[in-house]
Every structure is written in C-alpha cells, then in structure tokens.
Amino acid sequence: MALIADILLISGALGAALYCSVLARRLRRFNDLEKGMGGAVAVLSAQVDDMTRALQGAQSSAHHSTDSLQSLTHRAEDVARRLELLVASMHDLPGEGAAPAGPAAPQRQDRPPQDRADSEPMLLFRRHLPEAAQ
Fold first, then answer.
1. Please, what's the b/e burial string for 54-79 (b: 16 or more CB within 10 A of its CB; e: otherwise)?
2. Which of 18, 24, 31, 51 could form a disulfide linkage to 38, CB 3.0–4.6 angstroms apart?
C-alpha cells in the first residue's frame, strides 16, 4: 500500500511539473516584446504618446485660431460701425444737381484713370469721425 501511495505521489509531482513548464512557456510567449502581448502593449503605448502630442498641437493651434478670429471679428465690428457713421454722414452732402461749394479742382490727365485709382486714394469728402456722428 505504501508503494502504491509513493507511485501516485511521484506521478502527481511529475504531472504538476509538466503543467508548470507548459504554463511558463506560454507566459514567456505571451510577454514577448516582439510577437506577444508585451509587444502589442508597447506599440499601443507609443501610439498613445504620439496621439497625445498631436492632440496638444491641435489644441494649441485651435486656441491660436480662436484668438486670431476674435481679433478679426472685433476689427470687422469697428469697421462696420465706421461705415455706418460714414453712410449716415452722406445725408449731409449736397445732392447730385447742386453745384459744388468751391472751385472744382482740375483733374490730372497725365495718367490713365485706372492707374490713378491704383496709386492715389479717392477722397470723397473730408470729415472726422466725431463730426460725422453729429
């Protein structure tokens, strides 16, 4: 009886050793950095780092674009207010049939009209912004 118990005990120990060696081999393949899950985790970690950097770049770019757009919007609102004042001040100008108040300035004909429009700004009237508001 003792001999049978010893044989069963030895066979159980050999079976457990074989089972542990198979598990150890599988665990080594699982954690392999080139083919196994360890490699997949390493690749995913690198991709997460790249995506984090890309996201931070996109956020800073969006913040810069927002600031630029806000400044342009404020400038456009200021220009719109000035244009409204200029249009309102146009009602003070003499009509089409009225004669000009002073002598007419002679026009320079030494350049074609399109060249003159490109180089010299056209001045319709002189009013300062506070005068136009009144």
1. eeeeeeeeeeeeeeeeeeeeeeeeee
2. 31
CB-based contact 85:132 (threshold 8 Å): yes
Identity of residue 98:
A
Higher pLDDT, 56 or 96: 56
Count of alpha carbons within 13 angstroms of residue 36, beta-carbon side: 10
Greatest alpha-carbon pair distance for the chain in Å reads: 139
One-letter identity of residue 83: L
pLDDT of amino acid 117: 47
Q: Mean pLDDT, the chain, as a whole number?
A: 80
Are 86 and 132 spatial neighbours (Cβ–Cβ below 8 Å)? yes
Single out the residue of 14, 58, 107 nearest to residue 6, CA to CA.
14
Q: Whole-angstrom distance between the N-terminal and C-terminal Cα of the chain?
A: 122
pTM, whole model, 2 decimals? 0.42
